[in-house]
Amino acid sequence: MIQPRTLPQQTPLFQLWLAALALLLLTFVFNFFPVKNYDIFWHLKAGDLIRATKTLPSSDIFSHTTPNLRWNLTSWGSDLLFSYIYRYAGKTTGLVIFKCLLLTLVYALLLLTMNKQNQRSYLLLPGLWLLSLIIGKDSFLVRPQLFSYLFLAVYYFLLDYYRRPVTVISYRMLLLFPMIMVIWSNLHPGFAIGYLFLFTFLVLE
């Protein structure tokens, strides 16, 4: 007698969304700790200076040993944003909340780009997720490099979307890359990694 073929059991969508929400909440809580990188106050002073003068400083006025040294402030956008958050949104607590929201968004984008066809990957996801949080804890600080984490995740998400069946929307998504790069290059010098990321994708594709 021919036995009826049993279909692989699928995880209910509600449970997947609940698990994803739990992981994102874990990301937020795990990174909610007081500011421990004191160089943030240097960034805040630079942001305060930009807010006060409404111009980008060309020389370092904060150094005692090398006064008026030529200054290329490559993260001026981050410094200005941090300054506004510190001034108007709860000082260091506001900065920590902003960092946690940014990192949660990074992990959410990575979650959206997971291979949905591979059910086994979901079994390993919680352990790998927690491991990445533990390893990255010393790097997940209130610093301009947060924006490089974010935009790399955005690039990965857009490229993954582009690899799906080609539509008019997927082609229009390509127009976002130069606009993102303009913003990224004024927030953190890690924007150079974005070019390497795109080049690697083009070579492999």
Give structural notes.
The protein has nine helices and two strands, in the order H-H-E-E-H-H-H-H-H-H-H. It has 205 residues and is mainly α. Strand 1 and strand 2 form a beta hairpin. Helix 2 crosses helix 3, helix 3 packs across helix 4 (91-112) and helix 4 packs parallel to helix 6. The longest helix is centred in the middle third of the chain and has 22 residues, at 91-112. The termini are far apart.
Main sheet attributes: strand count, strand direction, barrel closure: 2 strands, antiparallel
Q: What is the strand tally?
A: 2
* Lateral strand order in the biggest sheet: 1-2
End-to-end Cα distance:
48 Å
- Give me the strand/helix succession: HHEEHHHHHHH
| Helix count, DSSP H or I runs of 4 or more residues | 9
From the spread of the alpha carbons, the general shape counts as: globular
Structural class: mainly alpha
Spatial extent as radius of gyration: 21 Å
Contiguous runs where pLDDT drops below 50 for at least 5 residues: none
Work out the oligomeric state of the chains in this entry.
Answer: single chain
What is the percentage of strand-forming residues? under 5%
Mean pLDDT: 85
Helix content: 55-70%
What is the topological layout?
Elements: H1 13-30, H2 40-53, E1 59-60, E2 69-70, H3 76-88, H4 91-112, H5 120-136, H6 145-162, H7 168-173, H8 176-184, H9 191-204
Antiparallel strand pairs: 1-2
